[in-house]
Amino acid sequence: MIIIGSGIVGASAAYHLSRNGIDVTVIDANHEGRASAAGAGIVCPWITHHKHPDWYTLARRGALYYGELIKELKNDGESDIGYKQVGALAISKDDEGINQSQAEAMSKREAGTPEVGDIKRLSGEEARALFPLLNKEYQALYVSGGARVDAHLLCQAMQRAASLHGAQFVEGKASLTLKNGHVVGAEVNGELYAGDQIIVTTGAWTNELLSPLDHSITIKPQRGQIIHFGVKEYDTSDWPVVIPDSSYYMLAFDDQRIVVGATRETDSGFDYRLTAGGVKEVIDAGLEMAALENSSVSEMRVGFRPMGPDTLPLLGKLEGYHNVTIATGLGPSGITMGPYIGVVASEIALDHTLPFDLTPYNPLR
Fold first, then answer.
1. Which of 221, 233, 260, 298 lies in the 20 to 30 Å Cα band around 349?
2. Helix %, strand %, coil % for the chain, to 5?
3. CB-CB contact of 278 with 225 (8 Å)
């Protein structure tokens, strides 16, 4: 099995397959701006701006899969994973926003997802007891089933664990190799790596890889700029993730660090750089949510989200090529769905039956 792309989807696929005794070769070009390398995000589809039921099908399964994944990684000796269930605060300055979040979370819990956890309205003072830097104008809804992830750490853990189970990792730019109209493998640095199945998890760079097949999918990069703030006077290890009624988010990690992100720059192309406007936008969003004026700017990252034609992933076999599976287009949902999508892509490549209808995610739609 050949996997092209070792981000959060490809690393998960490699881990799932290798753990089940399948020979795996993972090829990665190590592009600047890989979404998984920049991402630090929230796993909480219980309160979200996404309303599409087919999106929620995968987001729910993605959130629930983390429990199994973390357990397996720990069994393989991986403890530095960057995942922690810390709960989530949906914040708003008015009652209407909190009412909507509460109704959404309760409906999902009542629909058979007890993992949503406890749901509780909080005053501003109660919310600041959980996230001390939260600005005083906000009230909040607390949902105990929320979690946060450092995607970079998680990818590294899955890659190491896949290697432990025999997966081979190759760095270089892959090109698909055809013989008599069939994809037989991928060439890297002049060497052919043969494979009976190819899983393509190359994110926003997918069309470049597919060009020899005379196929293209509706995918484009969306630049996201993200800023890490140092708050050395606080123990941030158990602070909940923060979900405002905007496209931004805020979360804390164990090392006295708060992350605010991210811009959504749809027409950026692959312009890998921080911009004054983007940095200002993130800082403004952070200051709107929290008292970060005295924090230090410890790190800034840039990543390219792979954006499909809508909110749904591009997932399935490529028409005309029965041994090529596409798994991309997760957009801002990559951290929530990514590890589970890697498993699904593996099952598609193996022609296994899936527990849901794959039709809405047709990669050529």
1. 221
2. 35, 30, 35
3. yes
Question: Using one digit for the tens of pLDDT, what is the confidence trace for 294-315?
Answer: 999 999 999 999 999 999 999 9
In the numeric block, the tokens 């494979």 are attached to 195
**210 found inside a domain:** yes
236-285 pLDDT per residue, tens: 999 999 999 999 999 999 999 999 999 999 999 999 999 999 999 999 99
- Enter the tokens of residue 20: 């089940």
Give pLDDT tens digits for 152-201.
Answer: 999 999 999 999 999 999 999 999 999 999 999 999 999 999 999 999 99
- Which structural domain, as residue segments, surrounds residue 19? 2-37+152-218+310-361
Q: Which residues of 278-293 are buried (b: 16+ CB within 10 A; e: fewer)?
A: beebbeebbebbbebe
User: Coil, helix or strand for 17?
Assistant: helix
CATH number at residue 351: 3.50.50.60
Closest CA to 340 of 27, 96, 56: 56
Q: Tell whether 46 is covered by a domain.
A: no
Q: How far is CA 1 from CA 59, 92, 125, in A?
A: 26, 47, 54
Three-state helix/strand/coil letters over 276-305: HHHHHHHHHHHHHHECCCCCEEEEEEEEEE
Strand partners, 176: 186
Which residue bears the tokens 């890659």? 159
> Domain check: are 187 and 252 in the same one?
no
- Decide: 200 and 327 in contact? Cβ < 8 Å: yes
d(CA 279, CA 264): 12
Find out whether 266 and 222 touch, Cβ atoms under 8 Å: yes
| Residue 300 and residue 242 share a domain | yes
Q: How far is CA 312 from the centre of its chain?
A: 13
Same-domain pairing of 224 and 297: yes
Q: Per-residue pLDDT for 38 more than 90?
A: no
Domain presence at residue 319: yes
CB 299 within 8 A of CB 262: no
Which tokens is 279 given? 């940095």
Residue 286 has pLDDT above 90, yes or no: yes
Domain total of the chain: 2
Q: Is 234 within 8 Å of 133 (Cβ atoms)?
A: yes
Two structure tokens written together for 54: 């087919």
